[in-house]
Amino acid sequence: MIAIGDVAPDFTAETTEGTIHFHEWLGNGWAILFSHPKDFTPICTTELGYLAGMKPEFDKRNTKVLGLSIDPVSDHKAWARDIEETQGHALNYPLIGDRDLKVAKLYGMIHPNAGDTSEGRTAADNACSIRCSSPPSTRWPRPPTGSRAATW
After folding, report:
1. pLDDT-based confidence at residue 115 (cuts at 50, 70, 90)
2. What is the three-class DSSP state of 5?
3. Using DSSP, how many helices (H) and how many strands (E) does the chain show?
């Protein structure tokens, strides 16, 4: 399991923007790698749309955004159209299609005994109980009061 202070593990993955080699793609900047349990889920749709709207703030801070799901890239591309239509923001960062669970397991985003394929998995199967949030003093824009779009 990786820990704070470790070098982020490198990987190669298919994304909505083509194949990436993580360390090469990252360059000399920072990255936020996040996962969501399943495409076309209502909460994930709002979160990904909200994050797309905030991406210029990450760009100002030399920080790239990279999402991950166990669904295939073809599903991500169809979902991207739905996100833009319902959330008003087009996806402007890549989403990994992690069908073999390789990246999710490498980063501890899914249980190591989850199997070797995404076949037949549900959002509940993929949910992870570990969460991370930044302190309230972080100077990022806050979601509107009552919004469940994102938690920081």
Report:
1. low
2. coil
3. 5, 5
- What is the distance between the alpha carbons of residues 21 and 14, in angstroms, rounded to a whole number? 9
Pick from 29, 6, 25: which is nearest to 96 by CA? 25
The 8-class DSSP code of residue 128 comes to -
Tell me, yes or no, if 44 is annotated catalytic: yes
User: How many Cβ atoms from other residues are within 10 Å of residue 112's Cβ?
Assistant: 9
Q: What percent of the chain has pLDDT over 90?
A: 48
Residue in 44, 66, 68, 70 annotated catalytic: 44
Backbone angles phi, psi at 64, to 5 degrees: -90, 155
Question: How many angstroms separate the first and last alpha carbons of the chain?
Answer: 24
Could you identify the residue written with the tokens 């979160």? 47
Confidence of residue 112 (pLDDT cuts 50, 70, 90): low
Give all strands (DSSP E) within the chain, no chain letters.
Answer: 12-15, 18-21, 30-35, 63-69, 95-97
- Helix or strand (DSSP H, E) at 124: helix 123-126
Tokens of 116: 């070797």
Q: What is the DSSP string of 27-60?
A: TTSEEEEEE-SSTT-HHHHHHHHHHHHHHHHHHH
